[in-house]
Every structure is written in structure tokens, then in C-alpha cells.
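Structure in, sequence out. Go:
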């Protein structure tokens, strides 16, 4: 279908589109454009597995393997989302990767039950998103912007302690809080903000990735970079399913199930945002296919030792920024991810990231998640007394159980895992209060559309 006709008339006030969804730019353009998508999402899709692995105490070799699987599964999921397998896939230019929504819940599950329980919960709970896709039109009314914005804010807030821990040197590190760690994290943080705010184009889009590379270089004279694992890694490896086993715990599955509900809301917004760049609304088939891909490919991720996958909103923003909506370009990005996922040495280099470097990047990434949720609420919710009450109570309870887990220490272990998840407690609180409190004149609570969301992820 290669089309050389640029500047398509998309109507509906759409931005100028250089390549439409079904256009295929020549490879000389498509490959660099695909690499640009890779750069925009790369750090998020490897940083999140690194955070989870570090927080639950995995060994370096295990961490390297999980990062490798994250890249591989992201690539396969992207290709399925772009070109579809039967009803699975939106056939839209959507990049897939590890979901930030799951970071805090999976850390809670891993610390309580171990790594096998994480993968068990990821696999068993994934059909929740498939069901949401099937009944999409009937279910979306339960998730107005009041609820979705509050939940997105909670995702960012519950990850703040993790970002600070890594900036200080990592949980339990002997050098926790020393000046070298804080200075290195500060350098990465400052570089990420600087490139994002003072530059345009690729330098701005890839600001966090550039900051991490600078952090790697700065870590060398500080003696904080250990690349010994790279030499021990092979060049090519074949993935093995269920390498870490699988275990099933009801409370772990419930936590994961709610996280799937949240990430499906984000995916709905990303699909609408993607079709909006070419001046039209998403069809029911595209919406169902996109949510099916989230669910089925997250189940696939759990089988192959990776964490749940979802659409990456920063890549939706990149499409609007460049005017290139070609799914062929995004498919090339998926191919590059698969190639990287089959090369353990690449994963080993990533896994060697010093904790303060990861922490400095995490402050930016996780902070952006909170600000995106705040923007959803500010732009799309009337801040009446009722709505302010729902936001306040949901956030206080959600953050409270995360930062003061001893308060629920007398509860049974399985119950502790459930009510110790800030995302679950705060999210359910927002859902229930929104359903039972009488409306008081809020006018902007239309169907949920989280097109504002951009995953730091």
C-alpha cells in the first residue's frame, strides 16, 4: 500500500498527517521513524521491570532475564496490536510495553507471595480486560473522569516511595542516602527536565533516555557501574515459558484484576487518541481488538516471565507530534523490540543500571503519572463538594495503607495483601463512592476518555 501522498485531508480539524494509518513510507524513512518510537518508549518498558525486580529482591541474573523478556513480549505485543491475530489487535499504530499501573500492586504481591505468584496473578486475571473489551459500551459509564483521574493520581502517588528509595541507592543498600547516590540521581533528574523543556523534537521526546545515558557515564568515575554481568551473558537466547514457575493466591489475583480494570481505561483513551490524530473516532472493532490485545498479550507476558503489557501513551503523542500515523512504522518498532529481546547482552546492559540513575528517572516518570491524573480531574470534573470528598477520601485511604502498612498489621495475611494495595483501596473507594453518593450538579462527567494520559511508562 505504499503511499507517497503526504498531507492527507483528515477533516474534523485533525492535525496535518504526513502518513495515514494504512500508508507505508519507504524503508529509508520508516526505519528511522520506527527507531524514534523505540527511543520514546524504551526506558519506560525496561525501567518498570527493573523497579519491580529490585523491590522484591531478585538476583542480577534473574533481573537481566526479566528485562530481556519485557523487551521481547513488548515487541510481539506491538506487532499483534498493529496487524492483529483474528479479533485480537486494534490494527492501529499502537506501541505496547510494560504497564506502569501494575508496578506497585506487583511489588506488593511479590513481597507477600513471591515471583511465581506474580505471574500466576498476571495470567489468571488477564481475562478481566478481555471481558471489558467485549462489554465495552455497557461498562464504560462506571468509569467517569472523576474515577479515572483519581486512580491515575493514585498510581503516581503510591510509586513515590519507590522512586525516592532508588534515588538514595536502592532499598536496603549499605550506601543508602549517601551524597554520591543523591548527586547521581539529581544529575539524571535535572538532565531529563532540561532536555524535555529546553529542546524540541527527538531531544525532547527522548529526554529521559538521554538523561539515563548521561547517568551511566557519570556513574563510572563514582564506581557505581558494574558491567560484569554483560560479559557473562550470551549473545542470543531462546525464551522459555514459566521459567520461575507459577502460583495462585486469591488475594493476589484480585489485586491484579483491579489493575487490569485501570489499565483498560488507559487503553481506551490511547485508542481514541490514536484515531483522533487522523480525524475520526475509533470503531467498536478497533476498541474491542485493542482491549483484547491488552488482555491476551498480558496473559502471554505472564507465561513468558514478563509483566502485563498495555498501550504506551507517549507514543500516541509522538504520532500527533510527527504527523506519522503509519502502522507500518510502529510495526518496525515492534520488530526492533523483538530483536533486542533475543539478545541477553542488551538486557544485561540495561539491568546494570545503577539504582540512583533509575531513581532519578523514576522521579520524573512516576511524577508525570500523578500530574496526568491531576490534569484529567482539573479539565474534566467539576470540583463540587461531592467530587472533592470522593477524591480526598480515595487518595488518603490509598496512600495511607501504602505508607503506614503497620496500621493493618493485625489483619490476616491474605487480607493484608489486599487492603495493603493503595491502588486497590483508593480505586475501589472512588468507584463505590461515585456510585452511591448523590450527584450535585457536576456537568462534565461524560464517558471516560483518558486521551490526556501519557505513560511515563
Amino acid at each position: 500500500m505504499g503511499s507517497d501522498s503526504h498531507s492527507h485531508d483528515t477533516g474534523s480539524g485533525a492535525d496535518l498527517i504526513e502518513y495515514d494509518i494504512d500508508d507505508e513510507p519507504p524503508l529509508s524513512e520508516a526505519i528511522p521513524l520506527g527507531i524514534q518510537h523505540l527511543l520514546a518508549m524504551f526506558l519506560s518498558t525496561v525501567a518498570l521491570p527493573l523497579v519491580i525486580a529490585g523491590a522484591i529482591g531478585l538476583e542480577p541474573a534473574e533481573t537481566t532475564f526479566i528485562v530481556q523478556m519485557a523487551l521481547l513480549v513488548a515487541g510481539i505485543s506491538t506487532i499483534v496490536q498493529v496487524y492483529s491475530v483474528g479479533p485480537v489487535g486494534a490494527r492501529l499504530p499502537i506501541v505496547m510495553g510494560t504497564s506502569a499501573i501494575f508496578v506497585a500492586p506487583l511489588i506488593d504481591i511479590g513481597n507477600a507471595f513471591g515471583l511465581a505468584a506474580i505471574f500466576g496473578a498476571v495470567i489468571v486475571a488477564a481475562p478481566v480486560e478481555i471481558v471489558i473489551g467485549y462489554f465495552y459500551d455497557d461498562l464504560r459509564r462506571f468509569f467517569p473522569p472523576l474515577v479515572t483521574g483519581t486512580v491515575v493520581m493514585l498510581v503516581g502517588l503510591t510509586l513515590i516511595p519507590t522512586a525516592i528509595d532508588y534515588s538514595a541507592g536502592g532499598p536496603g543498600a549499605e550506601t543508602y542516602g549517601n551524597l554520591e547516590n543523591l548527586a547521581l540521581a539529581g544529575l539524571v533528574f535535572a538532565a531529563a527536565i532540561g532536555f524535555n523543556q529546553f529542546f524540541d523534537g527527538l531531544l525532547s521526546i527522548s529526554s529521559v533516555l538521554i538523561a539515563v545515558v548521561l547517568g551511566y557515564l557519570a556513574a563510572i568515575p563514582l564506581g557505581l557501574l558494574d558491567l560484569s554481568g554483560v560479559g557473562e551473558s550470551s549473545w542470543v537466547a531462546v525464551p522459555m515459558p514459566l521459567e520461575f514457575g507459577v502460583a495462585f493466591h486469591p488475594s493476589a489475583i484480585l489485586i491484579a484484576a483491579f489493575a487490569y480494570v485501570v489499565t483498560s481505561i488507559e487503553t481506551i483513551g490511547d485508542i481514541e487518541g490514536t484515531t483522533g490524530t487522523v480525524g475520526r473516532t475509533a470503531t467498536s472493532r478497533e476498541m474491542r481488538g485493542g482491549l483484547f490485545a491488552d488482555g491476551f498479550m498480558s496473559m502471554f507476558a505472564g507465561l513468558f516471565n514478563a509483566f502485563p503489557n498495555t498501550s504506551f501513551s507517549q507514543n500516541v503523542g509522538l504520532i500527533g507530534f510527527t504527523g506519522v500515523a503509519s502502522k507500518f512504522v510502529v510495526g518496525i518498532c515492534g520488530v526492533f523490540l523483538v530483536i533486542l529481546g533475543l539478545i541477553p547482552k542488551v538486557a544485561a546492559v540495561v539491568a546494570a543500571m545503577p539504582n540512583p540513575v533509575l531513581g532519578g528517572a523514576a522521579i520524573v516518570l512516576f511524577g508525570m503519572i500523578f500530574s496526568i491524573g491531576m490534569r484529567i480531574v482539573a479539565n474534566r470534573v467539576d470540583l463540587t463538594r461531592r467530587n472533592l470528598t470522593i477524591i480526598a477520601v480515595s487518595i488518603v485511604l490509598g496512600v495511607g495503607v501504602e505508607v503506614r502498612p503497620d496500621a493493618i498489621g493485625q489483619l490476616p495475611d491474605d487480607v493484608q495483601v489486599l487492603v495493603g494495595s493503595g491502588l486497590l483501596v483508593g480505586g475501589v473507594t472512588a468507584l463505590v463512592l461515585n456510585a452511591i453518593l448523590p450527584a450535585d450538579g457536576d456537568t462534565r462527567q461524560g464517558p471516560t476518555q483518558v486521551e490526556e494520559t501519557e505513560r511515563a511508562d
